[in-house]
DNA sequence: CACCTTAGAATGTATAGACATATAGCGCAA
DNA sequence: TTGCGCTATATGTCTATACATTCTAAGGTG
């Protein structure tokens, strides 16, 4: 595979940074020097450096120069698969069961719920994900009726609300917190395991612009589920 | 904030996709049409579309056109901070203690260890990360001496091997598995918690090209640590 | 010596054109 | 009708240039 020139410049600098030959905060050669080195036009050098900046590897300051980024705060790509797809891919039969559906006002003093509600009501949806009939994850979701009025009429008995939302509601931003907790009595009962069993807790909030759409807490059986994140060129 | 022209083109198309106005697999206007619409040169349009392609929002095929990407195979950006930096940022004092250092051959029949060793020996490094003296994570790391001979002479008593590796060894690819487990007796003892306490298990493997460099298993106290992943424009 | 002005340096954005290369569809021939 | 080759199309890469914007440092002034 012959790399194009701007790709070659990009990877040269990239490996110099990753190998430590270029230390964090260190200044890179300026564009005109790289033009000399690679015998090319400034736009080509610029394309390579802009790509590195977009990837967060370097920081460019107008008038000042280009600098290697802060300590390798290497960010990776986290795949967040749709549960039903993921389960099917492993050859199991996916199931979803809606446990509770409540239309309610935000809890008093719960700032997060009040922000999500935006002065109106919330739809609370509790459900259970399973693979081949075995419980796999408990999910507690809150949806803002202010942002998604249509969900009040949606049929959520068979389709998980996450899938319904993905298909019907555009969103622009999301944040996921991943941690580990011991299952409380209620969660353990639903997952049919002993209380205190380790669960992977995934908490996600979703926005469209500055408007909050939904927040969800998912408790995964630690032994049945894991997340994978990648860095690098090997893309599936 | 006045956007530059290529940024405006980029965000226009981005929001058309996110809002569903442009459906997945749908074909985008070709570059010459966008030149007409925005009254600009092809390079400007190209810059906008290339950025969208790099972000995975669209797919471009030479000779065929540009197409909206597959259904959001929702990938998010996972921040993988250096532990010492993360702890310091929260105002605690970070500590690292090397518990064991063994030079050994890969376990017979353990394919992963044999791949990592590459016919030579492995360096096993067990350590404990702490914040303000309180145990926070146990780490078991294997380093390939074939890939990183220099680590045999490194002083790893005070500096975590992860930090040392980041500073001295170039790597190009990494994969992280995140799951939840109950602490076994040994891990619980080191973390000074009851056996069975929920821990966040982070397993990471690192490559340079096709050569394996290191693999590590970190058991984090569930209550003391979490990971955050983001999708969207809000960049820190 | 402290402060301000200014010139140069470096990146940001954009243009117009050129050639390369992969794709898809059309028309022709078997 | 089927299959093949050609061509128009669309993106990929690169050049050379121009002007805008922002930062740094040098030098002059009080």
Count of strand segments of chain A: 10
Report the total helices of chain A: 7
Distance from N terminus to C terminus of chain A (CA atoms, Å) equals 19 Å
Order of H and E elements of chain A? HHHEEEHEHEEHEHEEE
Helix/strand class of chain A: alpha+beta
Poorly predicted spans of chain A: none
In which range does the helix fraction of chain A lie? Answer: 25-40%
| Radius of gyration over C-alpha positions of chain A, nearest whole angstrom | 24 Å
Name the pair of protein chains with the most residues at their interface, and give those residue counts.
A-B, 52 and 56 residues
Question: What percent of residues of chain A are in strands?
Answer: 25-35%
Question: Describe the biggest sheet of chain A?
Answer: 6 strands, antiparallel
Biggest sheet strand line-up of chain A:
4-5-6-9-8-7
Sum up the overall morphology of chain A in one term. Answer: elongated
Which SSEs are present, and which pair or pack?
The structure is a homodimer of 236-residue chains.
Chain A: H1 5-18, H2 31-38, H3 42-54, E1 58-61, E2 65-68, E3 75-79, H4 83-89, E4 94-104, H5 111-117, E5 122-131, E6 134-144, H6 161-168, E7 173-182, H7 185-191, E8 198-208, E9 211-221, E10 227-231
Helix pairs in contact in A: 1-3, 2-3
Chain A binds a DNA duplex (30 and 30 nucleotides) through helix 3.
Could you walk me through the main structural features you see in this protein, from its secondary elements to its overall organization?
Two copies of one chain form a homodimer. By secondary structure, chain A is an alpha+beta fold. The first copy, chain A, is built from seven helices and ten strands. Chain A has helices at 5-18, 31-38, 42-54, 83-89, 111-117, 161-168, 185-191; strands at residues 58-61, 65-68, 75-79, 94-104, 122-131, 134-144, 173-182, 198-208, 211-221, 227-231. The first copy, chain A, has a six-stranded antiparallel β-sheet with strand order 4-5-6-9-8-7. In chain A, α1 crosses α3 and α2 crosses α3 (42-54). The longest helix of chain A is centred in the first third of the chain and has 14 residues, at 5-18. Chain A is elongated, with a radius of gyration of 24 Å. The two termini of chain A are 19 Å apart. Chains A and B meet through β3, β7, β8 and β10 of A and β3, α6, β7, β8 and β10 of B. Chain A binds a DNA duplex (30 and 30 nucleotides) through residues 4-6, 30-32, 40-44, 46-47, 49-50, 60-66.
């Amino acid at each position: 595979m012959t790399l194009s020139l701007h790709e070659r410049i990009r990877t040269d600098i990239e490996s110099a940074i990753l190998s430590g030959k270029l230390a964090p905060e260190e200044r890179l050669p300026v564009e005109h020097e790289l033009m000399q080195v690679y015998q090319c036009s400034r736009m080509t050098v610029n394309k390579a450096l802009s790509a590195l900046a977009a990837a967060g590897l370097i920081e460019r300051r107008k008038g000042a120069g280009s600098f290697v980024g802060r300590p390798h705060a290497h960010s990776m790509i986290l795949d967040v698969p749709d549960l039903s797809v993921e389960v099917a891919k492993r050859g199991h039969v996916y199931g979803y069961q809606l446990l509770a559906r409540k239309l309610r006002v935000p809890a008093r003093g719960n700032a997060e719920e009040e922000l999500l509600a935006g002065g109106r009501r919330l739809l609370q949806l509790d459900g259970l994900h399973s693979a081949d009939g075995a419980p796999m994850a408990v999910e507690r979701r809150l949806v803002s009726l202010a942002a998604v009025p249509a969900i009040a009429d949606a049929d959520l008995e068979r389709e998980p609300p996450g899938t319904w939302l993905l298909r019907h509601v555009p969103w622009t931003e999301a944040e996921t917190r991943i941690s580990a907790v011991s299952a409380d009595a209620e969660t353990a009962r639903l997952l049919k395991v002993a209380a205190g069993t380790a669960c992977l807790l995934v908490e996600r909030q979703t926005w469209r612009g500055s408007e909050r759409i939904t927040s969800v807490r998912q408790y995964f059986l630690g032994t049945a589920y894991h997340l994978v994140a990648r860095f690098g060129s090997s893309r599936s």
